[in-house]
Design brief:
It is found in: Mitochondrion inner membrane; Mitochondrion membrane. There is one protein chain. With about 100 residues, the chain is mostly helical. The chain has one domain (about 1-85): Helix Hairpins, CATH 1.10.287.3510. The protein is about 75% helix and about 0% strand. The protein has helices at about 1-25, 30-50, 60-85. Helix 1 (about 1-25) runs antiparallel to helix 2 and helix 2 (about 30-50) runs antiparallel to helix 3 (about 60-85). The mean pLDDT is about 85.
């Protein structure tokens, strides 16, 4: 019964992360943070599901590996954007530029 409430809580928190991801269009850092929050909520849901069904948690290590790779790619894009444009505003650069 407690796992069901935890799943509902994780789903609601994931939906809040989706709302923040959609609504934050000004800074790249806020977008990346909300994306990481959504990934962590998905990991918690996956972990609860694997424990509830008595499966091995080996798949969660693969999921965490891909989450770390996604985070590193996002931070590298953020660093390169700050080096080239000086800030992380989406309005400060044009997609048509090289």
């Amino acid at each position: 019964m407690m796992n069901l409430y935890m799943c509902y809580l994780m789903i609601i928190m994931f939906m809040f992360g989706c709302i923040v991801f959609i609504s934050s269009r000004k800074h790249l850092l806020c977008t990346l943070l909300s994306l990481e929050f959504m990934v962590l909520m998905l990991f918690m849901l996956l972990f609860l599901y694997l424990n509830f069904m008595n499966y091995e948690s080996y798949f969660s290590m693969f999921f965490l590996t891909f989450c770390v790779c996604e985070g590193v790619l996002g931070l590298s894009i953020l660093v390169s954007m700050i080096r080239t444009h000086g800030n992380d505003y989406f309005q400060s650069f044009s997609i048509l530029q090289c």
